[in-house]
Write a structure and sequence with these properties.
- This protein has about 400 residues and is α/β, with parallel strands linked by helices.
- The protein has a domain of about 270 residues: Alpha-Beta Complex (Spore Coat Polysaccharide Biosynthesis Protein SpsA, Chain A), CATH 3.90.550.
- About 40% of the residues lie in helices and about 15% in strands.
- The strands form three sheets. The chain has a five-stranded mixed sheet with strand order 3-2-1-4-11, with helices on both faces.
- α12 runs parallel beside α13.
- The longest helix has about 40 residues.
- About 5% of the residues have low confidence.
- Bound molecules: 2-acetamido-2-deoxy-beta-D-glucopyranose (2 copies).
- One 2-acetamido-2-deoxy-beta-D-glucopyranose (NAG) binds next to loops.
- The site of one 2-acetamido-2-deoxy-beta-D-glucopyranose has 5 residues, from loops.
- Belongs to the glycosyltransferase 2 family. GalNAc-T subfamily.
- Keywords: Disulfide bond, Glycoprotein, Glycosyltransferase, Golgi apparatus, Lectin, Manganese, Membrane, Metal-binding, Signal-anchor, Transferase, Transmembrane, Transmembrane helix.
- Pathway: Protein modification; protein glycosylation.
- Its cofactor is Mn(2+).
Length: about 400
């Protein structure tokens, strides 16, 4: 009996709460409509222009939803690049994105005489829409006088549309875009070196082939390099969903580190780094390591520190190698929190590596440990005993 009364009380209170929620929802959705109407009457022309630009799929960084009857086809296409190719192909190459910067960043003023930059983008069998959206976002959101050229380095792709068609398209763009071809598959590091060698800008900016740059991304990077040419700078890497291509702002409260297996990891920014910046989150954030895909470096400084390790294969470990190199050669590695660039993060890699993924990464990591870690390399060998056992020195 007691139990029955208890149940009744619980049920009635839940019901009351549900009713309150419904009331609140209705009330606030009504209110939104009022605000809309007010805006329309205030700035009808501006509103119309803005809403037109924001209507298409994915505009303002919104998620793309694929219709039910297309889901099967979508799953098939997903396998090609390990992201939702169908969604990407639906989104305009020049889609609009939200301004996700901290308020303190939006009012910063930069010098007129910033160094200019060459952009180097390495690709291998990239999708047309993601590659060209990267290029268009660079062109549309970079001051023209700061953009020397864009170099697209093709690491031996096998897709037809990345051949002549890409070169012809590049010629129609209002910025100099050149396509360089590797004769055979050499991997990210050697392809980046090939691109870097061909640059003429004062700064080299490396980007991945499936990025989107947001408003004001470039100036703060170049301004920091102008201040100190030995600072190597990364934007905040925002997340573009591999499922929906929704644009989601990354955090300025995490930075790069690594574990003793020499995997790159994100960690919370420690209090000492917040204190060093006197709590101003818009100031450059010193980071032990970088994710590696996106960064800017003074071209002559890049040469001074010996560029990348050309003995590393394909991909993996090169981001930590570059990070250790920078810190140990008198430079600094920083995340510029006023610069935001989106990146499509995938759960799996669509590429096959000659010799297998594990093999390549192990070799690269051994080079990393032997060259830059002195006695600390022992931690790595203890944690990864398989690698420690093969005593042949890295070649
Ligand atoms: C993208 O380009 C098209 C065609 O040039 C143009 O109509 C559209 O307004 C542009 N979109 C944005 C968001 O700038
Ligand atoms: C960029 O800087 C280089 C070196 O100072 C200069 O030769 C080049 O003309 C500049 N490019 C642009 C687009 O201003």
């Amino acid at each position: 009996m007691r139990r029955f009364v208890y149940c009744k009380v619980v049920l009635t209170t839940s019901l009351v709460w549900v009713l309150v929620d419904v009331f609140l929802l209705l009330y606030f959705s009504e209110c939104n409509k009022c605000d809309d109407r007010k805006d329309h009457s205030l700035l009808p022309a501006l509103r119309a222009v803005m809403s037109r630009a924001h209507e298409g799929p994915g505009e303002m960084g919104k998620a793309v939803v694929i219709a039910k009857d297309e889901q099967e086809k979508m799953k098939e296409l997903f396998k090609i690049n390990q992201f939702n190719l169908m969604a990407s192909d639906m989104i305009a190459l020049n889609r609009s994105l939200p301004d996700v910067r901290l308020d303190g960043c939006k009012t910063k003023v930069y010098a007129d005489d910033l160094p200019n930059t060459s952009i180097v983008i390495v690709f291998h069998n990239e999708a047309w829409s993601t590659l060209l959206r990267t290029v268009h976002s660079v062109i549309n959101r970079s001051p023209r006088h700061l953009l020397q050229e864009i170099l697209l380095v093709d690491d031996a792709s096998e897709r037809d549309f990345l051949g002549k068609k890409l070169e012809n398209y590049a010629r129609t763009l209002e910025v100099r875009v050149r396509v360089l071809r590797m004769e055979q598959r050499t991997g990210l590091i050697r392809a980046r070196l090939r691109g870097a060698a061909a640059t003429r800008g004062q700064v080299i900016t490396f980007l991945d082939a499936h990025c989107e740059c947001t408003v004001g991304w470039l100036e703060p990077l170049l301004a920091r390099i102008k201040e100190d040419r030995r600072s190597v700078v990364c934007p905040i890497i925002d997340v573009i969903s591999d499922e929906t291509f929704e644009y989601m702002a990354g955090s300025d409260m995490t930075y790069g580190g690594f574990n003793w297996k020499l995997n790159f990891r994100w960690y919370p920014v420690p209090q000492r780094e917040m204190d060093r910046r006197k709590g101003d989150r818009t100031l450059p954030l010193r980071t032990p390591t970088m994710a590696g895909g996106l960064f800017s470096i003074d071209r002559t400084y890049f040469e001074e520190i010996g560029t990348y390790d050309p003995g590393m294969d394909i991909w993996g470990g090169e981001n930590l190698e570059m990070s250790f190199r920078i810190w140990q050669c008198g430079g600094s590695l920083e995340i510029i929190t006023c610069s935001h660039v989106g990146h499509v993060f995938r759960k799996a890699t669509p590429y096959s590596f000659p010799g297998g993924t594990g093999q390549v990464i192990n070799k690269n990591n051994r080079r990393l440990a032997e060259v830059w870690m002195d006695g600390f390399k022992d931690f790595f060998y203890i944690i990864s005993p398989v690698i420690g056992k093969c005593k042949t020195p890295p070649t």
